[in-house]
Amino acid sequence: MSFNNLDTLYRQVIMDHYKNPRNKGALDGEHVAIDMNNPTCGDRIQLQLKIEDGVVEDAKFDGEGCSISLSSASMMTQAIKGKTVEEAVEMSKLFSDMMQGEEVDPEKFSLEDIEALQGVSQFPARIKCATLSWKAMEQGVDESEEA
């Protein structure tokens, strides 16, 4: 697939998650809630995680911001559901590596739609947009383990 076709496909995936976010809303019952924002561009995310026995049973988010920030949150909540806390944190580290322009071994975890965000690494000011929800997830995992 040519670079232009791949770029177009990735843009479509990002816009699909932005216009039709997965897991947007609020969780019922007991859960961890994390509010984070990116003051440089105004992105704001509230992430809610239901973690039971070391597994992310459910994840939802709400917020406002750019297409990169909100599509990343949508993709992240999809990716971590059903994963162990350790797997979710490892995915976050791989995503961070990808945002820094590093090659990510697809054998470790399939990042599926998330790979559409790899082009963000070319725009340093947008990396914080893409990583906001992932950082919120890491904080939520830490808070959950402390409780």
UniProtKB/TrEMBL annotation:
- BP GO annotations: iron-sulfur cluster assembly
Record's CDD domains? IscU_like (cd06664)
| Top-level taxon of origin | Bacteria
Q: Which InterPro entries match?
A: NIF_FeS_clus_asmbl_NifU_N (IPR002871)
Query: Where along the sequence do coiled-coil regions lie?
Result: none
Query: What Gene Ontology terms describe what this protein does at the molecular function level?
Result: iron ion binding; iron-sulfur cluster binding
For this protein, the record's Pfam families field holds: NifU_N
Q: Where is the NIF system FeS cluster assembly NifU N-terminal domain?
A: 10-129
- What family does the database annotate? Belongs to the NifU family.
| PANTHER family, per the entry | IRON-SULFUR CLUSTER ASSEMBLY ENZYME NIFU HOMOLOG
**What is the name listed in the Swiss-Prot or TrEMBL entry for this protein?**
Nitrogen fixation protein NifU
The protein's organism comes out as Salimicrobium halophilum
